Amino acid sequence: MAGRIGIVGVAQTHYGKRPECHLEDLVFEPVEKILKETGLTFADDGTGIDATISCSQDHWDGWTISSKHAVDAAGGHLRPEEKVAEDGAYALYYAALCVLAGHYECVLVAAHTKESQVDGRLIENAGLEPLYLRMLGMDFTSCAALQAAQYLEAHTLGPADCARVVVKNLGNAMDNPYAQRAEILTETDVLTSPLLSDPIRVLDAKPVSDGACAVIVATEEKARKWTSKPVWIDGLGCCYDRHYPGYRDLTDPVSLKEAARRAYTMAGIKDPRREVDLCELSEYYSYQELLWAEGLGFCDRGGGAGLLHSGASSREGGLPINPSGGLLSGVPVNVAGLNRAVEAAVQLRGEAGKRQVEEAERAVIHGTGGVCGQMHCVITMRRGF
Length: 385
Description:
With about 375 residues, this protein is of the alpha/beta class. It has helices spanning about 25-40, 60, 70, 90-100, 120-125, 140-155, 160-170, 185-190, 220-225, 255-265, 270-275, 285-295, 305-310, 335-350; strands at about 5-10, 50-55, 80-85, 105-115, 195, 200, 210-220, 230-240, 280, 360-370, 375-385. The chain has a domain at about 5-120 and about 210-225: Thiolase/Chalcone synthase (Peroxisomal Thiolase, Chain A, domain 1, 3-Layer(aba) Sandwich).
């Protein structure tokens, strides 16, 4: 990478159903917090935040131009403001590119979604191919169930292997004050929860959630000036796969592998299993943590369950995965990837409290979107002090 992008500050809301909160208020909550914590203001003379990049999605917000509610709340009124749809990791990716290209020196990135105000199944169905797949009434959960079944069968695994992911992540969430769902569970609790779409059960899937988060990124020079605890973004990668799930091997996330390869190459990471101290990945369903861990190069193909069972991915293990509790603890779509960056930055700054991973210096964050993980974004971060 030609230069380094510094994370100056991060903020997030508490996640959960927020019926009392208008979308604009939801966005403003972390933005107000991050401005107070960093002391930065919106400025046109190079002394503050140059631009705003928001992440939202028209279907989830229920109207076109969904960024219109982020403009005022995130400082975009009569100022440079751009929108990224889909996952928040892509908004951070785009912000980093804007700074690297010299368009801006400091950018505020904000992501929001209120899942509770719409029927997510209808939104997800609209994301499927309109002539054949959409007419079947499928949503992302039913498609994920097909992927989960193929993955488990291919590697001789069972629902109990996925249940262990839930037990780990919701246990981690007990120490996360922003988590919506935090419980001490057993595998039996997970395996006896109501069935959504075989083999996925209620506790295998992330809950309906509302919330927002914000990140401020800047050039290395300004990041060093504005914070004593900079976190550097040193690797970026993204990749899309074919739209039709039937045209892909759902047990082999090739687009994730390519996104990870690009990010690791930029960051100079040759062995992610040994060089990465923690990972915040986007597991909308429990089986995905196992599959995405393989795609990120933390283990061989089919080795995700072995990594989990060995204890390596626990908070106290050699490569903690989702020490925050992950998406299973409750994080909205679109916000998910940016929230991964918020949690990783807090860890690298040593400010994660009871969920802190000791001596964490390098992290990988991951965002995904589309049916069965069609697209992936991987960003590497490291401690800068």
